[in-house]
Write a structure and sequence with these properties.
By secondary structure, this protein is mainly β. It has three domains: 89 residues, Sandwich (Immunoglobulin-like), CATH 2.60.40.1220; 147 residues, Jelly Rolls (Sandwich); 156 residues, no CATH class. It is 7% helix and 34% strand. The protein has three helices and 25 strands. The strands form six sheets. Strands 8, 10, 11, 13, 17 and 19 form a six-stranded antiparallel sheet that branches. Strands 9, 12, 14, 15, 16 and 18 form a six-stranded antiparallel sheet that branches. The N terminus is likely disordered.
Amino acid sequence: MNQFAKTFSLSACALAASLLISACGGGTVTDTTPPTVAITSASGTGGTATFTFTFNEELAANTFVIEDILVTGGTAASLTQVDATHFTLTVTPTGSAVTVSVAANKFDDLAHNFNTVAASNTLTVTADTVLASFDEATPLVFLGFNGAEGSAIEAGPAGGSGNAIKVLRTGGDPFAGAKVTAAAINLTTTNNTISARVYSPTAGTPMVLKLEGPGISTGDMPAVETVVVGWQTLTWVVPASAISTAYKDIVMLPNLGTIASVSPGETYFFDDFKLVGGGASNGGGGGGGGTPNPTAEMGSFGPVTLPLATAGDQFGFIQSGDGIFASDYEGAIDANGNHASWTNAVSRGAASNGNIGFFNDPAMDNASQKLDANGWIVGSLDNPGGVPNFFRFFVFSGAAAPFVNSWMGMFVNAPNNGLVDVSGFGSIKLKMWGPAEMYQQSNLNPVV
């Protein structure tokens, strides 16, 4: 720690010396170099695409606006300034490819030099594939199991689109649910997101999905329904290690891990399962390829000032004057909407912006000793402190190697690029809390 503090002191001295030398130097250097921009792209959720504009220097105020951008093959929705040198544009594609370009003389830097080089980027869009609408001329084959035998295909609640599958859980097992045999599920590494509209009587319900085929399974993929008595579109990203074209069945496990009351039970609706269209950039102009998978040092777009808390919650999680590594910290996002690049890392939950998640382990998911596995990220579930909660657990039978103990693994994509000055702080405090499945066990000895 002393060496750490000393390093910051020396850096400050070096910076002060540099500033002093600059102040004593001869004359003012005039900036005559025009600014440039690089454009990258990635497929988003819900049929959208995201284009990122990276400028080589800070621009003059209000010089880059949505009117400076030409979009072909799509409709621009919103332009957001992320920081001094980064903007993002959300586009709804209207064709098989969408091109975003910026012509010369559209923006200027702080010295009022205008760009002299145009830039563009093209994203090839794959349309969504409907897997199950439940309005098919030939009714789909489905099955309710282990306490959900009363499931049926019928007209969905108001706000839906025709028929839906009703999953009715009445007692049975914690993993009661239903499965439907869908159209071909042709997953690829760039087209591996499943979406569906979900209706739930309560908010904060984990909606677990998995795909199955002859001898294969994706393992449990959780998402969380946050709308009370209403429809919501959820997405599930199939891990890269589980990509296959052999899946035939969609398995729905609403409120997995609980046993529903026999009467009146729990009723959930699922509708319009789709394989969300993916895409890959063809590059062009000043853009290059699509957004690459970030490295472990994905970090931020530049130096970050560590924010200070001004008040604590009722449980003392945050104290006045504490620095906060926020879980909604924004960094580069990969083509699958995940922030983490570590093996088997899965981002979850719209509220997390993809910055928090769990490590999915196919070996554990497919282990014969596995009794249960689950996980979620949500802002309210089992959460007395009002701070976004997340967890992941595996429960194994017996003590056979290598799964002797229950296991969990989480990540929070806090600033990790080395550009956050923490020299004024003496320690890092972690506070863990969560569901009874984990934290009310006498043998819980978490290792961080």
